[in-house]
Design brief:
This protein is of the alpha+beta class. It contains nine helices and eight strands. Strands 2-4-5-7-6 form a five-stranded mixed beta sheet, with helices on one face. Strands 1-3-8 form a three-stranded antiparallel beta sheet. Strand 4 and strand 5 form a beta hairpin. Helix 4 runs antiparallel to helix 9. The chain is rod-shaped and about 110 Å long.
Length: 338
């Protein structure tokens, strides 16, 4: 990757460097110059590209050798550049028509000029390689984070399924004889829910429509289980659903947390609200905390997991507002790529 960047930089910067190196010569020469400016610019541009080529070649040797000492790289660069300059100087003297001693500056000035040019090229080359290595490290870290994220999702599913299945089967056993039609609907919802948990963990982001359908299955299962002690309102315009993506299990885990953290009954029902406002998904519920959560120290693993995943995927924390009577979590949705 760094080679392509070096080649592009060499082609783009060589004419600029040549003009920069050539201008002082034209301004300082008061008795004329044997070549016109444009021919001299083209010649020096080719020379600059040649120096770039020397540096890229030396850099490849240095990188392949696995050495960490940049001094050796710089020394080789200057040595090869001086050898190139010596070769060109010899070629000029082999052709008398190119040898105009009266107008050509002494050899000291060209050597200083060529070394200065090589120094600039070295600085640029080093900056490009350092940045390329940094980008490569960032990509590797991103891959590791994704793998870690997938592992955390697997843990989340593993934590959710056993407890949920136990409650679901208990509910099913209590309604299968009294209301077979309801039991049939319950089995279909449960089947859809479990099918989703098996396949969804393969993805980091999913369409909001899929996560919403999955969560609705979960909500319907809980409505059958808790009956009049649980209510849920959903305010999401259908035309906006297709516009967004969301981390898998994000919405469902928030709804699940409302059951884990709160103690409710028919007289004091749990009320959950899910609302889409602009590009934010807002999930809120009335607070009736279980005793183990009253001290504020114990927090759900699911919420910590969700916040960590949001940090990795979206680059920010989820927004939490905790008042005496209400608990609200706001999720930043991700626009679906066109």
């Amino acid at each position: 990757m760094y080679k392509n960047k070096l080649y592009r930089t060499a082609l783009l910067s060589s004419p600029i460097m040549a003009a920069f190196e050539l201008s002082p010569t034209f301004f300082l020469q008061t008795h004329g110059y044997p070549l016109n400016f444009w021919f001299a610019l083209a010649t020096l541009t080719i020379l600059t590209i040649a120096i770039w080529g020397v540096n890229i070649y030396v850099m490849n040797i240095w990188i392949k050798s696995g050495r960490k000492n940049n001094t050796e790289w710089y020394a080789l660069s200057y040595i090869f550049t001086l050898l190139l300059f010596a070769l060109l100087w010899i070629i000029v003297h082999l052709f008398p028509e190119l040898d105009d001693s009266r107008s050509r500056p002494s050899i000291i000035f060209p050597i200083i000029n060529i070394l200065a040019l090589n120094t600039i090229i070295l600085i640029i080359s080093n900056a490009i390689t350092v940045r390329s290595k940094s980008e490569q490290v960032d990509k590797e870290l991103a891959k590791l984070k994704i793998k870690n994220l997938e592992a955390e999702q697997q843990v989340l599913v593993g934590q959710m399924q056993p407890h949920f299945l136990f409650n679901a089967l208990s509910t099913l056993s209590s309604i299968i004889s009294s209301d077979p039609d309801l039991a049939k609907k319950y089995v279909i919802r449960l089947s859809n829910f479990l099918r989703y948990t098996i396949s969804a963990h393969e993805h980091v982001l999913i369409p909001l429509s899929e996560e919403l359908k999955f969560t609705q299955d979960y909500i319907e299962l809980q409505k059958i289980r808790f009956e009049d002690s649980f209510y849920c309102s959903l305010t999401i315009p259908n035309e906006q659903i297709i516009q967004y993506q969301i981390p898998v299990y994000a919405l469902q885990s928030l709804v699940e947390n409302t059951f884990k953290h709160n103690s409710f009954s028919d007289k004091k029902p749990l009320k959950v609200s899910i609302e889409l406002k602009d590009d934010q998904l807002i999930v809120s519920n009335n607070k009736m905390l279980k005793p183990v959560f009253l001290d504020g120290e114990r927090k759900g693993v699911g919420l910590k997991n969700l916040n960590k995943r949001y940090q990795l995927i979206v680059g920010k924390d989820i927004d939490i507002k905790d008042t005496q009577t209400e608990y609200t979590v706001t999720l930043k949705l991700i626009q679906t790529m066109p």
